[in-house]
Amino acid sequence: MWGKMKEQLYTIPVNDEFDKDCECPVCGMYRSLQDAAIDFTMGPSYMEDDIRMETNRVGFCDKHIKLLYKNQNRLGLALILLTHTEQVIKDAEKLAKSKKPAGGLFRKKETSAVKEYMDGLDASCYICKRMRGMFERYLVTVFYLYEHDEAFRKKFESCKGFCNRHYALLYEIAPKQLSGRMCEDFIAALNKVYLENLKRVRDDLEWFTDKFDYRYVNEPWKNSKDALQRTIQKLNSIPADDVEED
Q1: 105 falls in which pLDDT band (50, 70, 90)?
Q2: Are the beta carbons of 19 and 155 closer than 8 angstroms?
Q3: DSSP 213
Q4: pLDDT at 41
Q5: C-alpha distances in angstroms, 168 versus 135, 190, 237?
Q6: Using alpha carbons only, how large is the chain's radius of gyration in Å?
Q7: Max intra-chain CA distance, the chain
C-alpha cells in the first residue's frame, strides 16, 4: 500500500498544516480531510444514487456517525440511515433464513455468517473509506517534500512534533518512501521532534497539576492552561479544540 506513488502530490495543504502552530500537523491533515468528507456526505451528494448505494452498503463507524449527527442536516442523515437500515434488514433476513448458527455443544465454534456480516458492518465506514486514499497521498507528500524541499525539511525539524499514532505511522512508512542517508536523517529528525515535544507537553502538564497545590497558587500559569487538552492530542490524536467541543 505504501509503495512510492506517482500520483498527484498535495504540497499546498501539507505545507499549510506544517505552518500552523499545532501539536501534530498530521492530525490537522486528517481533520481537514474528515471535515471535507463530512460536508460532502451531508451535502447534495447524499441524494445521488451511487453515493446512497455505497452508504447503504458500508454504513458509518461510531466516530463518524457522531460527526454526521453534529452536522445539523438531520433530514439528510435520516434519509441516509433509513435506506441503510432497510439494506441491513434485507441482508439480515436473507442470512437468518439461509444460515444456521455455527458450532454446537460438542463442536469447536466457528464464526457464523450473521456474526461475520455484523462484524464487517461494524468495521466499515463510508467516511473512513472516502478519506483513506487522500490521506495516504498527503503522507507520501510529506516524504516527498522532506527529500526535495530544504525549506520544508527545516519546517519539519522545527515543528511541535506529532501525536503517538502519527509518529508511529511516519516511522513505519519512512523506509518505504526514503532510502539510505535520507531515510536515516528523517527518522532521526522524527524521533527528535517527537520526544522533545512530548517532554515539553509533559512539563506543561506537570506545572498544570502543580498549580492546584496551594504552594503554587500565586505562581503564573506559564504555558500550562491548555496542557491537558494538548496532552490528550499527543496521546489520543484528538485536536485540542475537539476536546473543548465535547
Answers
A1: very low
A2: yes
A3: S
A4: 95
A5: 15, 10, 12
A6: 23
A7: 72
